[in-house]
Amino acid sequence: xxxxxxxxxxxxxQQKMSEVKASLKNIQAEGVANNGAVKVIMNGDHEMIKxxxxxxxxxxEKEVLEDLIVIATNNAKKEIEVKSSEEMSKIxxxxxx
Length: 97
Prior knowledge:
Blueprint: H1 3-24, E1 28-33, E2 38-43, E3 48-53, H2 62-92
Antiparallel strand pairs: 1-2, 2-3
Helix pairs in contact: 1-2
């Protein structure tokens, strides 16, 4: 076995993974609720960067609006996780790390 070669490959993969993790914060995903009446944009660090609420919803009860915001935020989070996983699998060749 060539341990030097294996070590070099591991270091290269670690470097690539670091680069991908740094670039993941630049990806964005949108989560929606109520057919787009509430939209949330989230970045790869799972930070909400924008929220859009249809003005027609402002007449709804507070609890309804809160629920729709939670749904849209959770949808955006799931989308970020999918995109992050896809980017990582490009580097790792599908290995789960």
